[in-house]
C-alpha cells in the first residue's frame, strides 16, 4: 500500500496515564499520545480528540483548542471539572462512559454503609490508640441493615446497581428521588423491586424522616448543588447514615459538620469533597469527627474498572469518528 493510501489515524491525546494494554488497544485505531510522550503538551492545539478522567479543562484551555478537535471522551460520568459550555461552543462533542463503573462505585457506597453501620473505623482507631474496647463499650454497638429503609438520590446506573445490592442482600425498602429518571430506568426499577419496596418521591425532603441510610448518586449541576443541606439533615433520624460517592458540593459540607456535631445524624461516609483530595488543611473538623470516613474519590479506582473504562472511552471515540457518537453529554 502506498503512503498516500494509508488510512488516517485520528490524533487522540489522553490527559491521564494509560496502562500498556490500553495503549496497545488504542493504537490500533488512533495516533495515541499519552503523558510522558514528547509532544503531549501540545494536546490543546493538535488533538482531534481528548481523553479525560479527573483532569481539568478550563476556559483558558478551550480558548487554545485547535480547529481539528472534535471530541472529548470522559472516563466516567461527571463533567463538573470541564468547562462544558465553552467546549460545546467550539462544536466539540463531550461523551461520557455511563454505567461502566457503576458496580465499583455502588460497591464502595455499600462498603461505607456497612462499615459505618457497625462503627468499625472508630472502634479500630480506639484499639490502635491503645484503648481497651469491649463489646459493651459506648459506640461498639451498631445497627443491623437487614430490613432497613434506604434513600437513594439519583436512580441512574450507579443508584440502580446499589438498589439491586441493597434489596438482594438486606431486603431493603428504597425511597428513590430522581426527577429526570428516564422511562427505561424507571421500568428497570419497577422490575427490580415489588411495589411495596419502592417508593418514588417528587421532593427529596419527603424521604428524609423515613430513611436509615441516604446514598447520593447524582452529578454536580445547578439543580443538585447543595441538594442535601441543613433542612434535609435536620429532618433525618438521629441514627441515620449519609453516604456521598457522587460529587462534592451535592452535600452542604458546613451543614453536614453541624449535623454530626449536634447529632442530627449518626455518621457520614464521604468519597466526594468540594475540595479534593480532602486534607486537614481544608477539613480539619469534618475529618476529625469520630463517625466520619473520608476517602479521596476512589469509587471507580479499581484496577480492572480503570482499564475497562479507559477502553470504553476509546471505543466511544472509535464510534464517534465513524459517525456514531454515543452517550453525548448535554447538561
From TrEMBL:
<comment type="similarity">
    <text>Belongs to the D-isomer specific 2-hydroxyacid dehydrogenase family.</text>
</comment>
<feature type="domain" description="D-isomer specific 2-hydroxyacid dehydrogenase NAD-binding">
    <location>
        <begin position="110"/>
        <end position="299"/>
    </location>
</feature>
<dbReference type="InterPro" id="IPR029753">
    <property type="entry name" value="D-isomer_DH_CS"/>
</dbReference>
<dbReference type="InterPro" id="IPR050857">
    <property type="entry name" value="D-2-hydroxyacid_DH"/>
</dbReference>
<dbReference type="Pfam" id="PF02826">
    <property type="entry name" value="2-Hacid_dh_C"/>
</dbReference>
<keyword id="KW-0520">NAD</keyword>
<dbReference type="InterPro" id="IPR006139">
    <property type="entry name" value="D-isomer_2_OHA_DH_cat_dom"/>
</dbReference>
<protein>
    <recommendedName>
        <fullName>D-3-phosphoglycerate dehydrogenase</fullName>
    </recommendedName>
</protein>
<dbReference type="GO" id="GO:0051287">
    <property type="term" value="F:NAD binding"/>
</dbReference>
<dbReference type="GO" id="GO:0016616">
    <property type="term" value="F:oxidoreductase activity, acting on the CH-OH group of donors, NAD or NADP as acceptor"/>
</dbReference>
<feature type="domain" description="D-isomer specific 2-hydroxyacid dehydrogenase catalytic">
    <location>
        <begin position="45"/>
        <end position="325"/>
    </location>
</feature>
<dbReference type="InterPro" id="IPR006140">
    <property type="entry name" value="D-isomer_DH_NAD-bd"/>
</dbReference>
<dbReference type="Pfam" id="PF00389">
    <property type="entry name" value="2-Hacid_dh"/>
</dbReference>
<dbReference type="InterPro" id="IPR036291">
    <property type="entry name" value="NAD(P)-bd_dom_sf"/>
</dbReference>
<keyword id="KW-0560">Oxidoreductase</keyword>
Amino acid at each position: 500500500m502506498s503512503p498516500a493510501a494509508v488510512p488516517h489515524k485520528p490524533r487522540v491525546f489522553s490527559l491521564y496515564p494509560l496502562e500498556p494494554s490500553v495503549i496497545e488497544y488504542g493504537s490500533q485505531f488512533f495516533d495515541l499520545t499519552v503523558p510522558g510522550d514528547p509532544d503531549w503538551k501540545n494536546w490543546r492545539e493538535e488533538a482531534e480528540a481528548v481523553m479525560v478522567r479527573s483532569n481539568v479543562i478550563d476556559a483558558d484551555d478551550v480558548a487554545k483548542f485547535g480547529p481539528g478537535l472534535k471530541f472529548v471522551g470522559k472516563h466516567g460520568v461527571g463533567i463538573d471539572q470541564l468547562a462544558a459550555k465553552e467546549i460545546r461552543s467550539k462544536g466539540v462533542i463531550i461523551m461520557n462512559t455511563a454505567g461502566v463503573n457503576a458496580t465499583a462505585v455502588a460497591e464502595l457506597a455499600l462498603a461505607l454503609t456497612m462499615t459505618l453501620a457497625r462503627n468499625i473505623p472508630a472502634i479500630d482507631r480506639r484499639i490502635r490508640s491503645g484503648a481497651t474496647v469491649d463489646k459493651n463499650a459506648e459506640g461498639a454497638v451498631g445497627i443491623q441493615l437487614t430490613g432497613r429503609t434506604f434513600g437513594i438520590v439519583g436512580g441512574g446506573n450507579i443508584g440502580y446497581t446499589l438498589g439491586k445490592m441493597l434489596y438482594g442482600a438486606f431486603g431493603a425498602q428504597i425511597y428513590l428521588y430522581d426527577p429526570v429518571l428516564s422511562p427505561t430506568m424507571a421500568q428497570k426499577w419497577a422490575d427490580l423491586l415489588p411495589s411495596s419496596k419502592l417508593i418514588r418521591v417528587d421532593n427529596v425532603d419527603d424521604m428524609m424522616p423515613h430513611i436509615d441510610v441516604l446514598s447520593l448518586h447524582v452529578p454536580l449541576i445547578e439543580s443538585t448543588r447543595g441538594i442535601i443541606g441543613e433542612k434535609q439533615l435536620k429532618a433525618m433520624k438521629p441514627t441515620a447514615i449519609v453516604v456521598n460517592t457522587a460529587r462534592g458540593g451535592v452535600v452542604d459540607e458546613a451543614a453536614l459538620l453541624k449535623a454530626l456535631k449536634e447529632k442530627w445524624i449518626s455518621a457520614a461516609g464521604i468519597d466526594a469533597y468540594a475540595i479534593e483530595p480532602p486534607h486537614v488543611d481544608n477539613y480539619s473538623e469534618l475529618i476529625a469527627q469520630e463517625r466520619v470516613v473520608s476517602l479521596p474519590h476512589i469509587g471507580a479506582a479499581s484496577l480492572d474498572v480503570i482499564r475497562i473504562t479507559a477502553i470504553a472511552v476509546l471505543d466511544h471515540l472509535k464510534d464517534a469518528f465513524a459517525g456514531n457518537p454515543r452517550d453525548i453529554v448535554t447538561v
